[in-house]
């Protein structure tokens, strides 16, 4: 009966009804409530382009917080479809957030190039309109996209640009861009003194504004790990992990845990590394079909191998094959390109055990 009644309306009448429903729901829907999904749905069917884009952005961000990455990607794409119909400034503002949400939700390899072109176009338009915050958000999305797909030279290049651009944005955006840039440089082990300076500058702004950014303790933890200051690195990485949990920043949770695992492996604390692996596997298992879960499994297999557990070598080889198939980015970089530190877990493991599996890794 509902379908029959619905079909009796003309197409313009249907759109009008959906628009009225979307506008009514929008008055009572909180950005973090499930009701915002209905606002986006009806605004989409009613062709209320601005409301559809803004509600889709809020819905995508909500889904990112609850590990629903497929849904987050779907809403981000829905919002982006409405952006071409918006006035230029409004479009750039909404498109920036939607593109960032799309990157956080995960981008398949076949969509990387067109999405990168769209982000670069957005950055140029934001710069022309003097929309500093949106330009900074676009750079953040570009850094994340390149990082996820292993283009570390581009990460470094865009990170340095973001650091300079961030200082012209609002104080809050400046804080997050400096923190994000510093943590990116620290994690990939490039320009460590500059990364440390950016992170300390971000910390100063955060203290002044009374805000938290998990990138700051995480990035400083990576810096201290690089410098061999193990206790401080461990404390900062744990602080970043706990802060990311509070902020529901699941991607940062994973990166903090990955670095905690690596740190404990480097200093020979294999049992403690295994505890962090357990936490990492739980978080990464909820993050959709990205590379986090295979990375977590590989670190767990490596830790168990170093603990000389039965059948660990076979598990490690299986993880290597999985990572090879998905065109490994982060972990392969750590295992093959990262400069040897004082503790050199991989060199030590290879030299003492002469493992063909680790030699391949």
What do you see in this structure?
With 361 residues, the protein is an all-alpha fold. The protein has three domains: 9-88; 169-247, no CATH class; 249-284 and 292-334 and 345-361. Helices cover 77% and strands 0% of the residues. It contains 20 helices and no strands. It has helices spanning 2-7, 11-26, 35-45, 49-65, 69-82, 88-105, 112-128, 132-148, 152-166, 171-187, 192-209, 215-227, 230-247, 250-266, 270-284, 292-306, 312-325, 330-336, 345-353, 356-360. It starts with a helix and ends with a helix.
The termini sit apart by 62 Å
The number of domains = 3
| Total helical segments | 20
> Spans with pLDDT under 50 lasting ≥5 residues?
328-361
Question: Biggest sheet: strands, sense, closure?
Answer: none
The sequence of SSEs as H and E is: HHHHHHHHHHHHHHHHHHHH
Q: What is the assembly state of the chains in this entry?
A: single chain
According to DSSP, the number of beta strands is 0
Mean pLDDT: 84
Strand content: under 5%
Q: Structural class per helix/strand content?
A: mainly alpha
User: What does the overall shape look like?
Assistant: globular
Rg, nearest Å: 22 Å
Q: How much helicity do the residues have?
A: over 70%
What is the fold's blueprint, element by element?
Blueprint: H1 2-7, H2 11-26, H3 35-45, H4 49-65, H5 69-82, H6 88-105, H7 112-128, H8 132-148, H9 152-166, H10 171-187, H11 192-209, H12 215-227, H13 230-247, H14 250-266, H15 270-284, H16 292-306, H17 312-325, H18 330-336, H19 345-353, H20 356-360
Helix pairs in contact: 2-3, 3-4, 4-5, 4-6, 5-6, 6-7, 6-8, 7-8, 8-9, 8-10, 9-10, 10-11, 10-12, 11-12, 12-13, 12-14, 13-14, 14-15, 14-16, 15-16, 16-17
């Amino acid at each position: 009966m509902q379908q029959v009644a619905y079909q009796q309306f003309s197409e313009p009448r249907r759109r009008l009804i959906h628009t009225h429903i979307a506008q009514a729901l929008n008055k009572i829907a909180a950005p973090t409530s499930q009701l915002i999904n209905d606002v986006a749905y009806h605004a989409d069917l009613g062709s209320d382009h601005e409301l559809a884009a803004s509600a889709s952005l809020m819905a995508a961000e909500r889904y990112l917080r609850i590990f629903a990455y497929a849904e987050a990607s779907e809403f981000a794409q829905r919002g982006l479809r409405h952006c071409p119909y918006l006035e230029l400034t409004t479009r750039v503002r909404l498109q920036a957030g939607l593109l960032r949400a799309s990157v956080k939700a995960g981008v398949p390899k076949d969509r990387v190039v067109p999405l990168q072109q769209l982000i670069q176009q957005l950055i140029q338009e934001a710069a022309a309109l003097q929309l500093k915050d949106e330009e900074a958000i676009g750079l953040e999305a570009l850094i994340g996209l390149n990082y996820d797909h292993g283009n570390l030279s581009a990460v470094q290049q865009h990170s340095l640009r973001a650091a300079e651009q961030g200082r012209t944005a609002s104080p809050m955006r400046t804080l997050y861009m400096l923190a994000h840039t510093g943590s990116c440089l620290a994690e990939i082990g490039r320009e460590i003194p500059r990364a440390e300076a950016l992170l300390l500058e971000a910390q100063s702004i955060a203290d002044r504004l009374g805000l938290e950014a998990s990138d700051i303790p995480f990035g400083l933890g990576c810096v201290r790990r690089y410098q061999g200051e193990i206790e401080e690195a461990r404390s900062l990485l744990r602080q970043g992990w706990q802060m990311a949990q509070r902020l529901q920043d699941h991607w940062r949770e994973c990166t903090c845990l990955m670095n905690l695992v690596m740190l404990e492996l480097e200093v020979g604390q294999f049992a403690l590394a295994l505890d962090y692996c357990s936490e990492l596997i739980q978080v990464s298992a909820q993050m959709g079909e990205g590379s986090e879960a295979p990375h977590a499994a590989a670190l767990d297999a490596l830790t168990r191998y170093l603990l000389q557990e039965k059948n660990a070598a076979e598990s490690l080889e299986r993880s290597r094959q999985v990572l090879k198939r998905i065109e490994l980015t982060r972990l392969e970089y750590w295992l093959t390109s990262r400069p040897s530190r004082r503790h050199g877990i991989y060199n030590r493991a290879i030299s003492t055990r002469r493992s063909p599996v680790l030699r391949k890794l």
